[in-house]
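Researcher: I'd like a candidate sequence for this fold, 236 residues long. If you have to choose between options at a position, lean toward the conservative one.
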């Protein structure tokens, strides 16, 4: 395997299926199976779940809510997704731990960095819920932060139907070209929207590689874990 330890970023959308919102247990089961296939290749996997399929803080604040309160709701949404994913993984015999950045001892362990590392070393899949635990951040930034804390080799950013980074939106501009490999500086200079700027800066400053790939294609999570060239690699 190219990588020993990966941080998989799943957007909330990945768990919603065709309806585009909420949690679809059939879809979650399929994602879990793909994650198990990757795990069985011998790679340590940590996962950051998004929450956009249930709630996004910005949507609430655009409609007049206080941003911090709306963001905390978004973080709670990520815990629900984490629980659904944990349930689906355990159902197929994968040992997991859900670690929450907001204390919720009845449903998740508290996030303790050294404990998370220990779980990974013991071969458990670690799911990080509740983002960073602070409002005004995103789960992309959480992915960058946890990847740095876990010393992950790479962040695997699983996209729904998008197979990498393009020079422009390929749905709008037919001349858009897909990149196989770009640097974080290119991303900043060309203002490519892959993750928010905070997350990009965190990755760039800490030398964390990022792989953007399409998880709609069966088997791609395992391929991405093995470093196959299936999407776009962004590095320093
Ligand atoms: N969120 C937050 N702090 C964090 C991570 C997430 O406040 O550290 C909130 C924020 O409101 C965000 C929501 O949780 O909109 C759901 O996360 P995100 O939008 O990143 O999910 P995704 O788009 O990946 O599904």
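Model: Candidate sequence:
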């Amino acid at each position: 395997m190219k990588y020993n330890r990966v941080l998989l970023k799943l957007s909330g959308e990945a768990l919603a299926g065709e309806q585009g919102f909420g949690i679809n247990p059939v879809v979650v089961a399929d994602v879990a199976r793909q994650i198990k296939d990757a795990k069985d290749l011998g790679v340590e996997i940590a996962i950051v779940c998004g929450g956009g399929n249930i709630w996004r803080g910005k949507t609430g604040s655009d409609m007049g809510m206080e941003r911090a309160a709306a963001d905390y709701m978004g973080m709670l949404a990520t815990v629900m997704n984490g629980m659904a994913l944990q349930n689906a993984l355990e159902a197929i015999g994968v040992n997991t731990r859900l670690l929450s950045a907001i204390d919720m001892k009845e449903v998740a362990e508290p996030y303790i960095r050294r404990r998370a590392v220990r779980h990974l070393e013991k071969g458990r899949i670690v799911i990080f819920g509740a983002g960073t635990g602070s409002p005004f951040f995103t789960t992309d930034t959480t992915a960058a932060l946890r990847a740095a804390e876990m010393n992950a080799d790479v962040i695997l950013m699983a996209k729904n139907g998008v197979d990498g980074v393009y020079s422009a939106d390929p749905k709008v501009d037919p001349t858009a070209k897909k990149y196989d490999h770009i640097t974080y500086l290119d991303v900043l200079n060309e203002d490519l929207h892959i993750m928010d700027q905070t997350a990009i800066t965190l990755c760039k400053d800490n030398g964390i590689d990022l792989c953007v790939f399409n998880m709609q294609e069966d088997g791609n999570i395992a391929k991405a874990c093995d470093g196959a060239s299936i999407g776009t690699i962004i590095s320093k």
